[in-house]
Write a structure and sequence with these properties.
With 233 residues, the chain is an alpha/beta fold. It has nine helices and five strands, in the order H-E-H-H-E-H-E-H-H-E-H-E-H-H. It has helices at residues 3-16, 43-46, 57-68, 84-97, 109-113, 118-135, 160-181, 188-195, 212-227, and strands spanning 36-41, 73-76, 102-106, 139-143, 184-186.
């Protein structure tokens, strides 16, 4: 992976990672509000690799959200195998109909492994994020794609370098669209690069999806992004 690509990604991420800036959408200051949380995305959103529903990152984020807003409700629309195109076609309309206050989006790995072009991915993201920000009042939080190349599925394989390079390019596209739409961006990419090799227990038995420990770490990082958009009383 080339250093210029990593530098470009860091610059783009820095431009949209800060929460609480002027004009940013915020979750309500009223802690009695019945906040609706909608999760969009792929198998990681559905929770493949977790030992139970409670151990998925979406459920963990919802639990943290309920510690602030006791009446917070969850609609998890994530489906294993989803690509950005499938989120657009099968999840987005339902998400908008629910009138969410908070939306999390995790999408991209299936586009990468399915050899979808980065241009198509970015176009789909623009539509997804554009409609969420234009047709709802939700705080939108998206995560950078973890580095797929450090997982046992790809590490040491002939595909490792290509997958690593494509992950960077897809994350650059995601960061551009997030910045353009005022989306809170959470950096799972850097965390995965730093931590997966040192903590193999973060990856589940299939060598690809997170384990319970991995989802706990994912939820902790995602919660930082959500928390940055909670209005003070």
């Amino acid at each position: 992976m080339k250093r210029p690509a990593l530098v470009a990604l860091a610059v783009l991420f820095a431009g949209c990672a800060r929460g609480g800036h002027d004009g940013a959408r915020l979750l309500p200051a009223d802690r009695s509000a019945a906040v609706t949380y909608v999760a969009l995305g792929d198998s990681t959103v559905e929770g493949i690799g977790a030992s139970s529903l409670e151990h998925t990152y979406v459920s963990r984020v919802h639990a943290r959200l309920r510690s602030v807003y006791p009446d917070a409700r969850l609609a998890n629309l994530g489906v294993s195998g989803a690509t950005s195109a499938l989120v657009l076609l099968r999840q987005l309309d339902r998400a908008i109909e629910l009138g969410p206050d908070l939306v999390t989006l995790s999408i991209g790995p299936n586009d990468i492994t399915g050899r979808v072009s980065v241009e198509t991915y970015e176009k789909n993201l623009e539509t997804i994020l554009g409609r969420l920000t234009d047709e709802t009042t939700a705080v939108v939080v998206a995560n950078l794609i973890p580095d797929l190349a450090v997982t046992p599925r790809f590490k040491g394989s002939p595909e490792q370098d290509a997958v690593a390079a494509r992950t960077v390019r897809f994350n650059e596209a995601l960061a551009r669209r997030a910045r353009a739409r005022g989306v809170q961006l959470v950096d799972l990419y850097t965390a995965s690069q730093r931590e997966v090799s040192r903590r193999p227990e973060l990856v589940g038995p299939d060598g690809y999806h997170p384990s319970d420990a991995g989802y706990a770490r994912w939820a902790a990082l995602l919660w930082e992004g959500v928390e940055a958009r909670i209005a003070s009383r």
